[in-house]
C-alpha cells in the first residue's frame, strides 16, 4: 500500500479487535472491490463492495478468514 492509499483510509476505521475471535482485524482499501478486511492474526482477507458490508463483517472474522473458520487453506510457497 502506498502513502496516497494509506492517507485515504479513515484512521477511525483502521484496526480493531474482533468480538468473536479476539483477534485484530484491519479495514482498508481493497484491490478488486472498494473495501477489504484483513485478519492480522492469519493474514486472511475478504473484499467487500460496500463499507457497510465490511463493517458488519469486521467483528466476525470466523465468517470470512479461512483460518479463523478453522480451515487451514493450502498456502502456495
Ligand atoms: Zn483469522
Report on this structure.
With 77 residues, this protein is of the alpha+beta class. The protein has one domain. Helix content is 18%, strand content 25%. The chain contains two helices and four strands; from the N terminus they run αββββα. The protein has helices at 3-8, 51-58, and strands at residues 15-17, 24-29, 35-39, 44-48. The protein has a four-stranded antiparallel β-sheet. The longest helix has 8 residues, at 51-58. The chain starts with a helix and ends in a 19-residue tail after the last helix. The site of zinc ion (ZN) has 9 residues, from loops.
Question: Quick gist of this model?
Answer:
With 77 residues, this protein is of the alpha+beta class.
Order of helix and strand elements from N to C terminus: HEEEEH
What is the gyration radius calculated from CA atoms? 12 Å
Sheet having the most strands: 4 strands, antiparallel
The class by helix and strand makeup works out as: alpha+beta
Q: How are the strands ordered across the major sheet?
A: 1-2-3-4
Distance between the termini: 22 Å
State the domain count: 1
Fraction of residues in helices?
A: 10-25%
Give the CA-based shape.
globular
Q: Indicate the low-confidence ranges by residue numbers.
A: none
| Quantity of strands, as a count | 4
Mean pLDDT: 86
Report the sheet-strand fraction.
15-25%
The number of helical segments is 2
Ligand names: zinc ion
Amino acid at each position: 500500500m502506498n502513502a496516497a492509499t494509506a492517507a485515504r483510509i479513515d484512521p477511525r476505521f483502521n484496526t480493531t479487535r474482533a468480538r468473536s475471535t479476539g483477534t485484530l482485524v484491519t479495514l482498508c482499501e481493497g484491490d478488486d472491490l472498494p473495501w477489504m478486511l484483513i485478519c492480522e492474526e492469519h493474514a486472511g482477507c475478504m473484499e467487500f463492495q460496500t463499507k457497510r458490508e465490511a463493517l458488519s463483517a469486521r467483528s466476525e472474522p470466523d465468517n470470512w478468514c479461512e483460518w479463523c473458520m478453522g480451515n487451514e487453506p493450502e498456502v502456495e510457497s
